[in-house]
Amino acid sequence: MIQLYTAATPNGHKISVLLEELGVDYNVHVIDFDKNEQKSEAFLNINPNGRIPAIVDTEADADGDEFAVFESGAIMIYLADKYGQFLPSETKARSQVIQWLMFQMGGVGPMMGQANVFYRYFPEKIPAAIERYQKEVKRLFSVLDTHLADNSYLAGDYSIADMANWCWVHTHEWSGVDIEPYKHLKRWVAEIATRPAVQKGISVPPSEIDEKQLQEAGRNLI
Questions:
Q1: Which of 72, 55, 63 is nearest to 2 (CA)?
Q2: What is the average pLDDT score of the chain?
Q3: Which of 21, 37, 88, 161 makes an SS bond possible with 154, Cβ 3.0 to 4.6 Å?
Q4: Which residues pair with 69 in a beta bridge?
Q5: Which are the contacts of 195, defined by CB distance < 8 A and separation ≥ 6?
Q6: How many Cα atoms are found within 13 Å in the side-chain-facing hemisphere of 2?
Q7: Cα separation of 2 and 12, whole Å?
Q8: What's the pTM value of the predicted model, to 2 decimals?
């Protein structure tokens, strides 16, 4: 059984969406940022970095040993490998998926997180900082849009790369960025949003994007 430690943030939803797409049973443990549970000794034993999401696979091997995984991208790769879905085994196809997953991990997530902070939560408005991060988000959206002009999904078939990027991109309003100019990206966002597993996954925790949780997610990126 997979034990999911999560909160209502894009990174948290990446894992619940994947678990729903895989159709596997899992237990949800919601981490309360107000109580600083992500810094508790119990949670740090699972993720020494003190961030969500994290998982514990309680049936990881024949000996029954539990296995903890932290970092959302690493969790997605682990789960896709474990259940044999959404990540090809062929070397080049696998690399393409991982490249777009890393694009989200290294670019889309951090830049949207910083845009969230300076656009919504920073105690003072700093126009230069807001413009810097929104401009970079727009550049990244343009990269996605250009690629999606000739591709239904980011790397061949629907994969963990699509799930990871979508969970951030669909929150674009929180970064103050409009996706209207990016028609191919907009099509992709709308199409993935219709998937039942995606709809259920972003309701774990509740489907409304929780401002307090997003604020914490953004603050962690400063």
A1: 55
A2: 92
A3: 161
A4: 55
A5: 21
A6: 25
A7: 14
A8: 0.91
